[in-house]
Amino acid sequence: MAASTRSVQCALRRAVVPSLVVILGATGTGKSKLAIEIGKRLQGEIISADSKQVYQGLDIITNKVTPEELAQCRHHMISFVDPLVSSYTVVDFRNKALALIDDMHCRNKLPIIVGGTNYYIESLLWKVLVDTGGNHESGDGGDETPSRKLELEKLGGAELHKRLAEVDPKMAAMLHPNDKRKIARSLQIHEETGVSHSHWLEEQRGQDGGDGLGGPLRYPDACIFWLQADMEALDKRLDARVDEMLSAGLIEELGDFHVRYNQQKVQDNRQDYQHGIFQSIGFKEFHDYLTAPESSTQQEKDALREKGIEAVKIATKRYARKQSKWVRNRVLKRPGDNVPAVYGLDVTDLSRWEETVLNPALQILEHLSKGEDPPIPPIAVQGAEQKNKRSHHLCDVCDKVIIGDLEWTAHLKSKKHHSYARRKKRKCDPDCDKPQSTDAAPASAAETLSEDSCAAVALGCSETSQESPTHKEVPVTF
């Protein structure tokens, strides 16, 4: 009752409009810089939504704000979890962050959410974590009772997928057999609740204001800024940032952290780069360098070091693209009207940062606080018609499972698929690619494949395979 009364009092006292500012964008686009400037000017406080920055240590590789930046604006959710903890989840983050937002509203402070872990941000904006009753919650990004989930993940992907297909065929049809983490989570939910994961998702998405990706929006008047940059310019900036990290002591930081927290795990062959802070870009990439035998020559160590640096740069640029793709697919293409206003800001030219980023952002927030439409229009939301269905496809040619209609279309157009298709075509009929002599006697239908048959085999989507269960779409999306 006390918590309920407090929420009502906060709602009556709150004078913050918009109720929430969210800053999205790929790594290296300057999200923290904008957040700090807005916070200083508009009495805001920053909540970091970064799954690696919650852990103590690795300040360089996780790109934490500096002590000088922390002094400019109050920050939350940074460096408070022991690095050896691997059970911190999106549910833990969501619960703590929502309480912080409520407290800021009580104090008439503007909550500013910034960070690179987009599913953390999604858990705040939308009710996407499935409430299964009691204390158990899970969803697209969350794990509860992680010890059981980790135990399940030790099983092979094929075995896990088989188990899931037996208890939740709808969810199994939407998950790739290699996606052990999501399969284990779905199995865990069924074990602990006796109800399939797909059922919980259907129930959640059926709520008033829900959609195909989750439940209703928490803060309808939230304002989202999406920092965008030309990818070629961003790639150069990211390479330069890695070089700056190296100059700041990145290698030394990784080496020290490895000795304190990871060396014994490697010796026991139980290192884990899939959970906790060890997922940070850098650990897996520098694994060979950090674990090089003492007998290695300096030349060998230098080669491993350079290999690690290049791997970090590649992984960073790949991650930046993944972050941008998430904004397009999980925000701009979100079904229905369940999306706050998203304003694009161009961060390509850093010499014009105030002109193209800070001033437009402040202008937008000023108009919103007055209940006016900003002169800068938001990005158009593309809606449900663009949603990618997580249907299950099997390519007979490549012997590969593809999840998602867009991924399936891209696979059929890929060079790799067509290469396999040509090989299979030649194997079916070695003379298929050879010009036919006009003097040759026509072959009987029983002795040769027709041109249409060759094409069907090449595409791996014959009439039979299209009608098979592997090509049926399921009504629930993940």
TrEMBL record:
Keywords: ATP-binding, Cytoplasm, Metal-binding, Mitochondrion, Nucleotide-binding, Phosphoprotein, Transferase, Transit peptide, tRNA processing, Zinc, Zinc-finger. It holds the Pfam family IPPT. It catalyses: adenosine(37) in tRNA + dimethylallyl diphosphate = N(6)-dimethylallyladenosine(37) in tRNA + diphosphate. GO terms for biological process: tRNA modification. The keyword Transferase applies. GO terms for cellular component: mitochondrion. SUPFAM superfamilies: beta-beta-alpha zinc fingers (SSF57667), P-loop containing nucleoside triphosphate hydrolases (SSF52540). Its EC number is 2.5.1.75. It is found in: Cytoplasm; Mitochondrion. Belongs to the IPP transferase family. This is tRNA dimethylallyltransferase. The lineage of its organism: Eukaryota, Metazoa, Chordata, Craniata, Vertebrata.
